[in-house]
Amino acid sequence: MAPSKLDSNGNASVSQQENGFVDSLSILNSEKAVQEIIQQPLIPGIEDNLIEFSEAMRTVAKALRRAAEGKASAQAEAAEWKRKFELERARNLQLELKVLPSGVSNGDFYNERADNSADQPVLLNQTCEQSEVCCGENGICSHEVLRDGDPDSGLDVVQNRFMRKASFKLSWCGKGDNNDQRKHDIVSFEKGNITAAERSSKQISLKWESQPQTVLILTKPNSPSVRILCAEMVRWLKDHKELNIVVEPRVRVELLTDSMYYNFVQTWKDDKEVLLLHEKVDLVVTLGGDGTVLWAASMFKGPVPPLVPFSLGSLGFMTPFYSEHYKETLDSILRGPVSITLRHRLQCHVIREAAKNEYETEEPILVLNEVTIDRGISSFLTNLECYCDNSFVTCVQGDGLILSTTSGSTAYSLAAGGSMVHPQVPGILFTPICPHSLSFRPLILPEHTTLRVQVPFNSRSHAWASFDGKDRKMLAPGDALVCSMAPWPVATACQGDSTSDFLRSIHEGLHWNLRKTQSFDGPRDT
Ligand SMILES: NC(=O)c1ccc[n+]([C@@H]2O[C@H](COP(=O)([O-])OP(=O)(O)OC[C@H]3O[C@@H](n4cnc5c(N)ncnc54)[C@H](O)[C@@H]3O)[C@@H](O)[C@H]2O)c1
Ligand SMILES: Nc1ncnc2c1ncn2[C@@H]1O[C@H](COP(=O)(O)OP(=O)(O)OP(=O)(O)O)[C@@H](O)[C@H]1O
Predict the structure, then answer these.
(1) Is the shortest distance between the CB of 222 and ligand 2 below 6 Å?
(2) Is the pLDDT of residue 304 over 90?
(3) What's the burial of 271, exposed, middle or buried (CB within 10 Å: 0-12/13-18/19+)?
(4) Average pLDDT over residues 70-85
(5) Ligand 1 center–CA 438 separation, angstroms
(6) Which of 287, 290, 470, 471 is the pocket-test mutation for ligand 1 (most atoms within 8 Å of CB)?
(7) Regarding beta strands 203-208 and 214-219, do their DSSP bridges make them parallel or antiparallel, or are they unpaired?
């Protein structure tokens, strides 16, 4: 049909066609006919059919969505099973080794190779095919905690030297416990009475079983004091401890600008090599504030080597070590044993409604503090449907929702009214941000739950997810975020122990419950 416009009198004027003028009267007639059709009642039954059809389509969409979400949960579960399998395999290997002839030491199983130096110092590569041998019956050893991925994956890292990774063991000890016994939750059922004898969440101690050899130093950018300390620390670790040092490419350039002495410092070339860092690095040192600790954790998409966080920031809630004492601190940590806080991380999957037919979901993102789903720049109320292990929890109507680890409980979640929780307590915090409700208290859910936050199809606006305050992702109506505990925690070294460090941070960092003490004089109970 030719395009038509109404003139100021309401008559249709018709544009010129290739084959001449079109009869405007016939157009008016066709428009009239269309109007008549529109006004006619629908064929009986067609409306019902359409409703039925759209209902069926909605059911199909729901089924597809459930399949995608099921896949994300299954991926999280598979990761957990994989970890358990590794543990079991390591334990079996340990048992087999017990029957090996004496004289075959654990170290013999490492595949150490000679130096084949190249001029450009880049990341070390090493093989530890037999690393499971270091696992003991008590505690968890480094390769249970750190090993992941297929050793034959063929990812080619440029190398100048091969070396082994230091192994360590974690043990759970309570006050007065001097032995290495790992304490499980022991529940006894004597005469029908249930008694919990031991709890697992005790102070965790890390013991090196072989000497750490490679240290990764991560630094806060654009800070002159951090840059100076980093150069000093690298020199000390090389000259006094003979350690291999790995830094970020940016930092290597900075060091070389200062002096060619730092030519031995190694770095990486691309993201592929970053993915393999956990196989080479024995210890990670961070120089900065809490943001640098978050940055360090985010570099490891799987297992994370133990972290030593030095405080060169303003608040430093997770950074207990004073930079002035770095030599004594590192000396003692390299010797061990080290008290650690095993900080859990959350694994987040974004499930796209638009990609519901696709097999692959987006890469999971690991967070040490929290994942936040908020309204972003939209001025509308966020509307988020929340499910816990497929049971409906609630619909958040407000600025958003924070799903936080217990380590993150003192960060954004605290600002939104969540409880402060000791980082060693396993759990997931469910904290609303400015809920438009008088009765919406924050929750703490058990660690084993899987949470799903969904933007409803009828939502007025998009929502935005951010991960440890970074990497914003838009969630369109129909999109969901699935979140569960990740199998790879972050072990951070403690100054004292995890409880004294936590209490010191809430007192010194947050001035928790600071109040003038009431004076002695005045009225009393009689
Ligand atoms: N309203 C808020 O309180 C708010 C808003 C946005 C982000 N944040 C937090 O900032 C974090 C990102 O940190 P950043 O350093 O990259 O950004 P940033 O530079 O904006 O610093 C945020 C502040 O939060 C503190 N912080 C971070 N993690 C903490 C923790 N676990 N316990 C106590 N304090 C902590 C930091 O020391 C810093 O002072 C996010 O994970 C989020 O928790 C808080
Ligand atoms: N190696 C790094 N590369 C890129 N960005 C980094 C690195 N380390 C830290 N950052 C970022 O720099 C920002 C500030 O770092 P950080 O929080 O450590 O310092 P701060 O704000 O001075 O200390 P605090 O958090 O104690 O107040 C954070 O957003 C963090 O993500």
Answers:
(1) no
(2) yes
(3) exposed
(4) 67
(5) 27
(6) 290
(7) unpaired
| Alpha-carbon span 355 to 412, nearest angstrom | 31
Q: Please tell me the residue having the least CA distance from ligand 1 atom 4.
A: 412
Q: Which residue has the tokens 């990764």?
A: 216
Confidence (pLDDT) at 211: 94
Distance 507 CA to ligand 2 centre (A): 22
Is 22 part of a structural domain of the chain? no
Q: How many domains does the chain have?
A: 1
Distance between alpha carbon 522 and the CA centroid of its chain, in Å?
Answer: 53
Nearest Cα neighbor of 393 from 458, 448, 447, 444 is 444
Residues 6+ apart with CB under 8 A from 402: 370, 371, 372, 408, 412, 413, 416, 418, 429, 430, 431, 432, 433
Bridge partners, residue 17, by sequence: 20
Question: CATH number for the domain including 357?
Answer: 2.60.200.30
Residue 342: which residues within 8 A CB-CB, separation 6 or more? 170, 204, 424, 489, 490, 491
Structure tokens at 492: 């951070």
Ligand in nearest proximity to the CA of 311: 2
Q: What is the per-residue pLDDT for 354?
A: 83
Which structural domain, as residue segments, surrounds residue 371? 346-485
Closest CA to 390 of 484, 314, 304: 484
Which one is predicted more confidently, 200 or 436? 436
Q: Is residue 120 part of a domain?
A: no
Q: What spacing in Å lies between the alpha carbon of 191 and ligand 1's midpoint? A: 50
Cβ count near 325 (within 10 Å):
13
Residues in the chain: 526
The closest-lying atom of ligand 2 relative to the alpha carbon of residue 313 is 23
Model confidence, pTM: 0.76
pLDDT value at position 467? Answer: 98
Q: Is residue 179 part of a domain?
A: no
The alpha carbon of 24 is separated from its chain's Cα centroid by a whole number of angstroms, namely 67
Report the Cα 246 to chain-centroid distance in Å: 23
CB–CB of 487/304 below 8 Å?
A: no
User: Hey, what are 415's tokens?
Assistant: 């600002």
Asked if residue 502 has its Cβ within 6 Å of ligand 1, the reply is no
What tens digit of pLDDT does each residue of 329-380 get? 999 999 989 999 999 999 999 999 887 767 666 889 999 999 999 999 999 9
| 212 close to ligand 2 (CB < 6 Angstrom) | no
CA distance 319 to 501: 9
Say which ligand is closest to the CA of 505: 1
Catalytic machinery residues: 290
Position 421 in a domain: yes
